[in-house]
Each structure stands twice: as structure tokens, then as C-alpha cells.
Amino acid sequence: MEDFEAIYIQHFDGVYKYVFSLCRNEAIAEEITQEAFYRAMEYIDKFEGKCKLYVWLCQIAKHTFLTYAKKQKRYVPETDVDLSWQSEPGFEREILDKETAWKLHKLLHRLSEPYKEVFSLRVFGELPFSQIGELFGKSDSWARLIFYRAKKELRRDLDENIV
Q: What is the 3-state secondary structure (H, E, C) of the chain?
């Protein structure tokens, strides 16, 4: 159990941010993250090491969230996100403005996958491209390209006021 406590301490924040990027709700993200770690603790002996432990934990968290969302039979709204903690330069800084953030979320909702998820993981989940690529079973270059394309499309739509 001591080893799992170290895993929990080391990875909780990252997994929480990932779950938050999926649900945009602090309470739900906390609950899902706790449940994901509980499941991980139950099945830690089944971890084969084919990916990084963090990626495995995020996969469990994603499945936990999808199960939760299915049970709720509703979409978790993206409108109540507090973006004040963001401090990225350039394009990412613009999302601090609440009106722009609202427009961005509406545009982001219209993006197709994987663009929507990669953008959310990078901006809201603060994940590095290497981890995003790993989550998708792709390279960090792939994650950078998808993020760039998503950002470019969102920038174009924001500039054209398509909301």
C-alpha cells in the first residue's frame, strides 16, 4: 500500500487536470479522479508496463468518466469553467477573457475529434505533447500537429466571429 500512496501523491494532480479537461466541473473531476485511483489500486497488479503509469491512470480515469457520463445520461456543460489559472502566452492568454472563453467553448464543442480532445488536454489539462500523443498511441509530433490545426481553426472562427 505504501507504494500506491506514492503513486497517488505523484500522479493525482495530473490525472485530476485530465479529468477536469473532460468534464469542466471541479466536484465531478474530484469524484472521478478518486474513483479512478480506487480502481487503479484494485487492478495495479494487472498493470503490464506497456505504457507509462500516468497514461494507464488517465485511461482508467477516462473510462470512469465515460461510465459516469453514461449513467448521468447528460452532457456535462463546459460553460462554468474558471480559466483564471491559465497563463499561456499568445492565443491561450486570450481565453482568459470570459466572453472570448465562452465563444471558444462554443467553437470547441463544434470541433471534431481528435482536435477537440487534443486542444482541451493541452490548454485545460496542461498536458505536454508527449503525454497527449501517448494517450492516443501517437507521437508528440502528431499531438503538436493536431493541436496546431485545432488552434488555427479556432483562431479563424474567433476572428470571423463564427459563434
A: CHHHHHHHHHHHHHHHHHHHHHHCCHHHHHHHHHHHHHHHHHHHHHCCCCCCHHHHHHHHHHHHHHHHHHHHCCCCCCCCCCCCCCCCCCHHHHCCCHHHHHHHHHHHHHCCCCHHHHHHHHHCCCCCHHHHHHHHCCCHHHHHHHHHHHHHHHHHHHHCCCC
Distance CA 113, CA 150 (A): 10
| pLDDT given for residue 57 in this prediction | 92
* Alpha carbons 1 and 151: distance in angstroms, whole number: 42
pTM for the model stands at 0.50
pLDDT tens for each residue of 68-80: 888 776 544 444 4
**Residue 52, Ramachandran bin (φ over 0: left; ψ between -120 and 50: alpha; else beta):** beta
